[in-house]
Amino acid sequence: MTVPAERTYVPDTNVLVAAYHHYYAPDICPGFWASLSHHIDSGGLLIIDRVFDEIVSPAELVEWVEQATNCSFPTTATQPVADTYRQLIDWAQDNPQFTDAARVEFAGSADGWLAAYAMANGAVVVTNEVSAPEARRKVPLPDLCRQFDIQCINTFEMLRGLGVQFEWSPH
Fold first, then answer.
1. Is 137 within the bounds of a domain?
2. Is 60 within a domain?
3. For 26-56, what is each residue's pLDDT tens digit?
4. What is the 3-state secondary structure (H, E, C) of the chain?
């Protein structure tokens, strides 16, 4: 039984790519992908435009995302998201902890936009990244979220929050 989502989850690119290549590969766990499709349809899971733009391979994953979302991606091109993004990017740029390369990488990735979308829309960020408060060479998404009080969880916590369960059955 699927429990309706009380929250809206917005996954980071790494959630989809790592799942596809590893522990939820479509050939061994089609239920994972079916559950994501279901929750995309019901509005409990959103793949934002900037995350979709980062998914460049494999072609099968790109196609799955396009089909699951009907090529309809929530946009980050809204004033509330842009205003929030400016706060997040300013924090990263002004933070002496991070190297110049880390700041450049952060500014060019979907992470800041994902966090800004979540903050502006009351959504929950889902990522495989882990907190690294002392990191210098990367702006860790969980630490950015913590700094701005944005809820940030991992894939397993999202699946539990969505009430997803996988069951094995013999062929």
1. yes
2. yes
3. 999 999 999 999 999 999 999 999 999 999 9
4. CCCCCCCCEEECHHHHHHHHHCCCCCCCCHHHHHHHHHHHHHCCECCCHHHHHHCCCCHHHHHHHHHHHCCCCCCCCCHHHHHHHHHHHHHHHHCCCCCHHHHHHHHHCCHHHHHHHHHHHCCEEECCCCCCCCCCCCCCHHHHHHHCCCCEECHHHHHHHHCCCCCCCCC
Give the residue carrying structure tokens 């300013």: 90
pTM above 0.70, yes or no: yes
Q: What is the domain count for the chain?
A: 1
What is the structure's pLDDT at 168? Answer: 82
Amino acid at 171: H
For helices 30-42 and 155-162, give the axis angle rounded to 10 degrees: 60
Cis link prior to 58 (omega < 30° from 0)?
yes
Print burial letters for 22-41: b (CB count within 10 Å at least 16), e (below 16). eebeeeeeeebbebbeebbe
Domain CATH for 89: 3.40.50.1010
